[in-house]
Specification:
By secondary structure, the chain is mainly α. The protein is about 80% helix and about 0% strand.
């Protein structure tokens, strides 16, 4: 009597094929998710760099505005001093002082850059 292998029932073959299919799909999904996570990590680094760059530019702009405010204060002091000097000046010096006063007023009346809200 010879023994021949008994064929597996069709249900077990289908189950094994489904498991192989699921394992393959799971591996594919894992690889796709891994690529997406890597892409997101790269995007995050780019955004973090841009945020640092923007913060540095914002700080630079704030310093510029502070310096401009200091210069405007100095010009206002100069304007006040020139007005006081003009009131006490001899007649022959008044045209020169009036010219200096007009220049200071023109600088004070120049359009100011937009202001950022205080943090």
């Amino acid at each position: 009597m010879s023994t021949q292998p008994v064929p597996e029932p069709s249900g077990e073959l289908e189950l094994e094929e489904q498991l192989i299919l699921y394992a393959t799909e799971l591996h594919t999904l894992y690889q796709e998710e891994k690529k997406e996570r890597e892409a997101l990590a790269e995007e995050k680094l780019v955004l973090e760099y841009k945020l640092k760059e923007l913060s540095a530019l914002n700080n630079l702009f704030r310093k510029h505005l502070e310096r401009r405010e200091q210069l405007e204060d100095a010009l206002e002091d100069l304007d006040k001093g020139l007005r006081e000097a003009l009131a006490r000046a001899p007649a022959k010096l008044r045209p020169q002082l009036q010219s200096l006063l007009a220049a200071a007023e023109a600088a004070l009346n120049a359009p100011a850059p937009p202001q950022l809200p205080k943090q």
